[in-house]
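User: Predict the complex.
Assistant: Input components as received:
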Amino acid sequence: MEFEPKKAQGPVVKPGEFAFSAAGLDHGHIVGMCAALVEAGATLKTVYDPDPAKVEGFLKRFPTARAADCLERLLDDPETRLVAGAAVPSERCALGLEVMAHGKDYFTDKTPLTTLAQLEAAKEAVKRTGRKYMCYYSERLHSESAEFAGQLIAAGAIGRVIHVDGFGPHRIGPLSGRPGWFWKREKTGGILSDIGSHQIEQFLFYAGEEDARVQFSRAANYHNPEYPEFDDFGDCALVGKNGATSYFRVDWFTPAGLRTWGDGRTFILGTEGYIELRKYVDVGVEPYAADCVILVDGRGEHRFSARGKTGFPFFGKLILDCLNRTENAMTQPHCFKAAELCVQAQDNAVDITPGENRGWKRDFSPPSDSGEEKENMR
Amino acid sequence: MEFEPKKAQGPVVKPGEFAFSAAGLDHGHIVGMCAALVEAGATLKTVYDPDPAKVEGFLKRFPTARAADCLERLLDDPETRLVAGAAVPSERCALGLEVMAHGKDYFTDKTPLTTLAQLEAAKEAVKRTGRKYMCYYSERLHSESAEFAGQLIAAGAIGRVIHVDGFGPHRIGPLSGRPGWFWKREKTGGILSDIGSHQIEQFLFYAGEEDARVQFSRAANYHNPEYPEFDDFGDCALVGKNGATSYFRVDWFTPAGLRTWGDGRTFILGTEGYIELRKYVDVGVEPYAADCVILVDGRGEHRFSARGKTGFPFFGKLILDCLNRTENAMTQPHCFKAAELCVQAQDNAVDITPGENRGWKRDFSPPSDSGEEKENMR
């Protein structure tokens, strides 16, 4: 095979050359974000969260970091070049505006923001301060199978990308283990923003689309009537400016018997072949293996394991981008376009919740001649 | 495991108890249709097609059948109880109306019809004659993995079905090997009718939905500008009356390196687990195996091979339905509902063909606030 996973380089800076801090520990992703930056050479300096228990847990994982007694102390630290945060989604933009106002770059967990007004504020702040507002779209950036798919496409393995399908199932786990904000639409931004953001970002990246449009989206509360604002299912169809299409489905229905949190898949259809990613488990196959990549082209069916092969080049590139004011890890427009589309997908989603799970009863209307579907729009 | 594939019974009638004939050999599916009926005990009596070469080929496969010199001879045969046909899609309904007018049941290749006017005529004829207008939705009826999925759902293996995803990729093969009608929209009904009909039928069946609605559909000519009427890609989102949702994608982009004509998949998401069917190939796995069924539930990940296990119970049931005037194989409303929805999906599809493959240039409009998408409607 001429297609082999290419390994990321190791640390891109020497110890102390790039210091960053962490603020907002509401989502566990903060650990992966910080660990990946440290692996790429960054120095984790300070951490702040209003909840001392969260800070204590964080320091067990990163014992060389110091706790700040308030956010301002962290923001005023002249050595901190970037702040990584995983606040409650609806508060991510506000934190980013503060970070950028203090002359630092911002690296937030996905989804990076939850409203179009926040997006406008973030864009304006980026323009005014010259700082970065980057996002941890982890299902691509922190996945070796996803990284390898990008290498395959760039090498021309499947020709021109015409369609991307994404499945983003998640395990909800014990309901009591979820914080209160998890069930609130205003806090999470809804399922299409929250876990849907990964999917939209992957479509834009793999199809090489700088702009796209949401053509259709749905959200539902199928099975959690005790939390009427919660979406446990969502899906969405998009079309890119250059004509590639996408569909994705996200849900909270991973059964207890799966060996990991979700059987995430990406299917990338090209004019000369296709790629399937079995990102977190090759379901039903023993022993446990993640990062399974299947490529079918004109010559045959090819299976790869990307695990341990590519590393995660995004993080080293991000450090260098911050130092050199370049955009090799991700462009700012790409980051914001994915955010914009996921907010639009959620805001325009047709609510197809059956029964009375939202507190009202859905009417089933007869098929319409036009194919238009606007009922129950929220 | 308590879930094991249940085997279909053998022949349901003795030789000569149920005679049928074949008319309209335009699509190769006629062979599978006749072979399955013969395996279930039916006697294939007569065949007619205006093309002698097609009849000759057919008789090589079914040497005990006799050739009729005209369609009327076949239709007037009092022993023939059912006529199986795989005419050009746009002519399937006209053939069925003739068959039913002669007091015989009709079993047509998918898609069973191509326009809503044909659907009305077929419904009226069924009502008037009391005959059956059944359809060979082969991707479920002639697939052991699909049959086993139905058994699993009926046994409650995944709880309530909330969503079905279907991928129906097909290999186009050498373009010169395709008949002229293959490229004509009016003849095939378009991709969402033709190969999409399988997908819609599977959704209705697995979700137990008697009625549903097309919410969004697209079609494109991505890569065959020399045939501007041809759709090489289509997709569609549906919602059922009881609230289950579906998405499917069909295309003609199977690369030459795949070991079979298409990597057909069905993903069925339930409240308590999910099922994946790898219908025609477990891609990338040696040795070649089809009918791979994966079930994930509360207890674990389970892999089954359904090949050689379930048989195809539809065909024996269809014979008995014709003899006993029952509807155990498939109800007439189910058959017609799938047909209706696929015509609607096609008629209302947004054309997302990029470039000038249809002979005109697509405009990319900016994102709309409403999420409505009606441009280029055909």
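The radius of gyration of chain B is 21 Å.
Let me know if you want any component modeled separately.
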